[in-house]
Specification:
single chain, about 220 residues, alpha+beta, Heat Shock Protein 90, 2 domains, two-stranded antiparallel sheet, 6 helices, globular
């Protein structure tokens, strides 16, 4: 137990230090953008470099959320629409050179008692997986609504389907369809959501679309 608490404390310290340096990088990338605009300078190489830096900052920020989500649960009342919008904004960093459009249909005034960081990490992971499932061009749909006092969140994409054989194992620890994957993402998402009285499930995956759904109590 002492080793676990020490690990969590070290995780918080490392996250804090990285966040400080990310803030500096973000500040100077904004300064560069403003200077170029003020002086009327148009340079594709510099602009692409700044965009790449900003994308990298978002991706590292996402990783920090994953890291922070290893800490103890902190259950608070959260606006689901706001968190989903934040997750979409953070996930766009993974699109890179693909032609992908993210479509949102989010119901207002939906609240749930959840852990903000763990929930964000889960949604970002689902969107990231959806982006990776699309080879070049496609669409991602995110929908939220309430039904019988339960909040339903659906994340679907028009990318490559998951085979029937793999669908049975997709939430198992260590299972991955990626050559560089750890097989922890969906397993951790499912486990974290279950600890918050929520359920993550694969609704379908066929030639038309792949859809995941989160169901949890509405406040």
């Amino acid at each position: 137990m002492k080793e676990l608490e020490l690990y969590k404390a070290q995780t918080r310290c490392i996250s804090h230090e990285i966040r400080n340096h990310l803030s500096i990088c973000e500040l100077y990338s904004e300064i560069i953008k403003k200077r170029l605009a003020q002086e009327g300078i148009h340079n594709d190489s510099i602009e692409n470099a700044v965009k790449s830096i900003q994308k990298s900052l978002k991706i590292i920020g996402n990783s920090l959320i994953d890291l922070k989500s290893l800490n103890n649960f902190s259950i608070t009342r959260q606006n689901i629409k706001t968190l989903l919008e934040n997750a979409v904004e953070m996930s766009t960093a993974y699109i890179c050179d693909k032609d992908i459009k993210i479509h949102c249909s989010l119901e207002d005034e939906l609240y749930a008692e959840i852990d903000e960081n763990k929930f964000l990490a889960c949604i970002v992971n689902l969107i990231k997986n959806a982006i990776e499932a699309i080879d070049v061009k496609g669409d991602i749909y995110i929908k939220s609504y309430v039904q019988k006092n339960k909040i339903h969140i659906k994340v679907s994409n028009t990318g490559n389907a998951i085979s029937l054989e793999k669908q049975k194992e997709i939430f198992e620890e260590g299972f991955t369809t990626k050559s560089t994957g750890s097989g922890l993402g969906l397993h951790i998402c499912k486990t974290n959501l279950e600890n918050q009285n929520a359920k993550l499930q694969l609704v379908k995956s066929d030639a038309d679309s792949t859809e995941f759904e989160i169901i949890m109590p509405a406040v």
